[in-house]
């Protein structure tokens, strides 16, 4: 983190930073505030203080709070995409299952990011074109996993995009319940895994079995 808080809460004086680095510092500061204080803590003043710059710098570099939220949303969707893409499992059905498990792990490890990405935890007046593109790329990673499973004959997916949406809807619903402590079984992880297995059995090509 490039900036630090001062004990008395005042904005720290800092040496001049090259303008090309200011935006990076502000985004890093916004992430630090989000992770530490939650969505409600993300304000222009708090981020500016975390970065050690005047609040006007947030407006000059990112256009204010809307720009900060956009930057955080892009970070969140990019990290979720990487989590979904990360699988190296040779069996494509097993990879699709692992993709679903990594989705849950991302949500549990990044609760505040997940909240702003999917629960409007920071009220946002607009969705920028750039944020929409990063969100679509995340969904695209899931679509490619479905396509790979279908191409190897492990699942039936005449329309991979439709199947990907069904999977996303299912895992998101399960994760949303867990994040709100609304899972009524004693082991939420086991329940989630069982739900993944049930869903994949429904998608599997007859005779292909489960997730391998």
Explain what the structure shows.
The chain is elongated. The chain is 66% helix and 0% strand. Residues 1-15 have low confidence and may be disordered. It is an all-alpha fold and 212 residues long. It folds into 2 domains: 1-63, Arc Repressor Mutant, subunit A (Orthogonal Bundle); 72-203, Tetracycline Repressor, domain 2, CATH 1.10.357. The chain is built from 9 helices and no strands.
How would you concisely characterize the structure shown here?
Helices cover 66% and strands 0% of the residues. The chain is mainly alpha-helical and 212 residues long. Helix 1 crosses helix 4.
Which structural class do you get from the secondary structure elements? mainly alpha
**Could you say what the CATH architecture of the largest domain is?**
Orthogonal Bundle
Q: How many DSSP helices?
A: 9
CATH fold topology of the largest domain: Tetracycline Repressor, domain 2
* Extended strand count: 0
Estimated radius of gyration:
20 Å
CATH class annotation of the largest domain: Mainly Alpha
Task: Give the N-terminus to C-terminus distance in angstroms.
Answer: 43 Å
CATH superfamily of the largest domain, by name, is Tetracycline Repressor, domain 2
* Share of helix, binned: 55-70%
Could you tell me the mean pLDDT? 89
Let me know the largest β-sheet. Answer: none
Number of spatially distinct domains: 2
Shape field = elongated
Low-confidence stretches: 1-15
Which series of helices and strands comes N to C? HHHHHHHHH
Beta-strand proportion = under 5%
Give a quick set of tags describing it.
about 210 residues, mainly alpha, Arc Repressor Mutant, subunit A, Tetracycline Repressor, domain 2, 2 domains, 9 helices, about 65% helix, disordered N terminus
């Amino acid at each position: 983190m490039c900036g630090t808080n001062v004990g008395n809460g005042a904005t720290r004086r800092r040496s001049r930073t090259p303008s090309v680095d200011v935006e990076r510092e502000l985004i890093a500061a916004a992430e630090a505030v989000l992770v530490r204080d939650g969505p409600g803590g993300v304000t222009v003043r708090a981020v500016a203080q975390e970065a050690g710059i005047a609040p006007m710098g947030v407006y000059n570099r990112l256009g204010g709070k809307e720009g900060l939220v956009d930057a955080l949303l892009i970070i969140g969707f990019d990290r979720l995409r990487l989590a979904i893409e990360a699988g190296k499992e040779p069996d494509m059905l097993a990879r699709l299952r692992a993709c679903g498990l990594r989705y849950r792990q991302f949500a549990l490890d990044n609760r505040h990011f997940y909240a702003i990405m999917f629960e409007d935890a920071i009220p946002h007046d607009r969705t920028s074109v750039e944020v929409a593109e990063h969100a679509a790329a995340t969904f695209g990673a899931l679509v490619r996993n479905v396509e790979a499973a279908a191409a190897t004959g492990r699942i039936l997916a005449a329309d991979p995009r439709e199947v990907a949406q069904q999977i996303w809807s299912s895992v998101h619903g399960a994760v949303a319940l867990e994040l709100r402590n609304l899972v009524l079984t004693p082991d939420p992880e086991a329940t989630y895994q069982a739900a993944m297995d049930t869903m994949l059995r429904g998608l599997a090509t007859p005779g292909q079995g489960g997730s391998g």
